[in-house]
Amino acid sequence: xxxxxxxxxxxxxxxxxxxxxxxxxxxxxxxxxxxxxxxxxxxxxxxxxxxxxxxxxxxxxxxxxxxxxxxxxxxxxxxxxxxxxxxxxxxxxxxxxxxxxxxxxxxxxxxxxxxxxxxxxxxxxxxxxxxxxxxxxxxxxxxxxxxxxxxxxxxxxxxxxxxxxxxxxxxxxxxxxxxxxxxxxxxxxxx
Length: 191
Hints:
The protein has 191 residues and is α+β, with helices and mostly antiparallel strands. The chain has helices at 2-16, 23-77, and strands at 79-83, 96-100, 102-106, 113-118, 121-125, 130-132, 138-148, 159-168, 176-185. The termini are far apart.
């Protein structure tokens, strides 16, 4: 029985002893936890910033794609193409294989219209109004219209090669350069 009492006293002493973490151990573990969370937050914020930037670039590129498609559609259904060099009557078709910054054409609705590169944008001049058709966030650095096949009796369908170069974004480190090119053929047969 003496041994049973000794064991019971020993167990009470073990149960009375406090088991836990010291304040230093707690401070170290909390500090490590904060460091891990802060590095994770930095990565999360960086990923969010990249996502926002990609959304902005996508919006700008969608605008540019819309502009290219609009110009292509209008030129495709138009006629009487020539580069606006000021040397011809504006309603005379003429090839310009060396290219120019603007193109004059006769839209399907009639009249004359001009697409031109001006002040970092592409603008449409319908003879009444002149309006920039690219977004303010898009800066055009070069535009070239090359017109071929407009000569009478050449048995070629009129064709326009359009190139647009520039960048999107206003901040230098956030700029995205682009170089777009498309070929447009007149829809109405020219033979």
